[in-house]
Amino acid sequence: DTAVSQTPKYLVTQMGNDKSIKCEQNLGHDTMYWYKQDSKKFLKIMFSYNNKELIINETVPNRFSPKSPDKAHLNLHINSLELGDSAVYFCASSLVGDYTEAFFGQGTRLTVV
Amino acid sequence: GIQVEQSPPDLILQEGANSTLRCNFSDSVNNLQWFHQNPWGQLINLFYIPSGTKQNGRLSATTVATERYSLLYISSSQTTDSGVYFCAVAGGTYKYIFGTGTRLKVLA
Description:
Chain A is an all-beta fold.
């Protein structure tokens, strides 16, 4: 009964392909996030959504397009994948913005070859 | 934006030893959390601690918000404590800002 779940857990794909990562939370939270963890383990915000509305786009290339069909889901679509996109992507959620505790999914390890 | 620094960057302990990890932040915050990233990559919530002191088993944490720091104490460390410990803060901008982490290795 995972609180924040992401699929797939692993993704290996070739340069130039388009791929999506799905995220779902069953906590009833209003706010969802996407984070990128690079090879040095640094975690950086990419996007945050509140009640399906985009709040933050942290200078992420246009090739990355988040979509929130409802409050419980936040998917990430990536076009024209590049080698530099290889990383671990984490989805997270919190009840109301960043004033409340955040919970993270298990991560999706994306490898672009 | 808020800067978050963690120290030490790396720590090697013998099983049974105690340790203190530190998180300094550059501005006032609404929220502070400690996470453990285990060797399988999962981010485990340890403490939600914008201020005050909390304890959970062998782990405890203290945040002194007025002085802009937080401490995570690990007592009687075990090999399963190995991994990376992150501090994350938030200042009302719909994002959590992570420190660079403390990489802990506990030897049997």
